[in-house]
């Protein structure tokens, strides 16, 4: 699938990578709900090179999840080049380089958006990966390291010159982390630069279908990646597809919310084990049941239950209570 080809011929709507969120079970739900494009959680090149079990599991995907990219990160060129072989053996559609993660444990080591302090190094590593990879290479980045160093329009041209086939931009700097408001005007400036010819994807603060349509129309991006707005809300992709087709939205009933949440939990338990699934799913519950009147007691019960059986029992009570 060409990155510019979508079923609606208007805008690609994809799932942005999030650590311990966009795992195989959640990606499957998002795909079923209409996500055009999927990307795995980011994976450390060093971990892949030492066959770390958790990192290898992050690369797994089903045949239904194509087109999908595997996202890698690291600060050492040789480590990144070494991991290409194991990544390509998984047979994704493309390899995505993470030059955007702002968290300290990544950026503090010069990986992710930490490399935005050394643009020449970023370009050298990217060019080397493109040269040695047998699959298309894309990049995810941010506006810059800080507001004083937002050279996004300049270094995106240079990234394009390395041979990457698409570029995703989160509309914040590294120092902003996830605070403030994503600046889509800078993403639009990259897209509307006449020297840019590769697809440009925008990312940041998309929580509704209306926002997706507005940002597509205002900034002309080729695609939109949704991250935090999809947590506990895989329906956002269906809503975006409907909006781009000009169709009315539909109501998501409590029964459907419980059914999808239950499916998510059970699939996560099968994939990662019950203990891990029960813990990681706590990040999703607030969004799955957002807006329900007097939901707080149920939310507290969901985040406190230690077992899969107890969590399923709480979900049953939610369905019974609101129906």
Can you tell me about this structure?
The protein has 323 residues and is an alpha/beta fold. It folds into 2 domains: 12-244, TIM Barrel; 254-321, Putative flavin oxidoreducatase, domain 2 (Non-ribosomal Peptide Synthetase Peptidyl Carrier Protein, Chain A). It contains 15 helices and 9 strands. Strands 1, 2, 3, 4, 5, 6, 7, 8 and 9 form a 9-stranded parallel β-sheet that branches. The longest helix is centred in the last third of the chain and has 19 residues, at 254-272.
Short characterization:
It is built from 15 helices and 9 strands.
Topology of this protein?
Elements: E1 12-15, H1 24-32, E2 38-39, E3 43-44, H2 45-49, H3 53-58, E4 68-73, H4 77-89, E5 94-99, H5 104-107, H6 119-132, E6 137-142, H7 152-161, E7 166-170, H8 184-191, E8 200-203, H9 209-219, E9 223-226, H10 235-244, H11 254-272, H12 274-280, H13 285-288, H14 296-304, H15 308-321
Parallel strand pairs: 1-9, 2-4, 3-4, 4-5, 5-6, 6-7, 7-8, 8-9
Helix pairs in contact: 1-11, 4-6, 6-7, 7-8, 9-10, 11-12, 11-15
CATH topology type of the largest domain: TIM Barrel
Please give the number of β-strands: 9
Summarize the main sheet: 9 strands, parallel
Helix percentage range = 40-55%
Cα end-to-end separation: 42 Å
Strand content: 5-15%
Order of helices and strands: EHEEHHEHEHHEHEHEHEHHHHHH
Class from helix and strand fractions = alpha/beta
Overall average residue pLDDT: 94
Q: Tell me the count of domains.
A: 2
Q: Any low-confidence stretches, pLDDT <50, length ≥5?
A: 4-8
Architecture of the largest domain in CATH? Alpha-Beta Barrel
Radius of gyration: 20 Å
How many H/I helical runs? 15
What is the overall shape?
globular
Look at the structure and give the CATH class of the largest domain: Alpha Beta
Write the CATH homologous superfamily of the largest domain: Aldolase class I
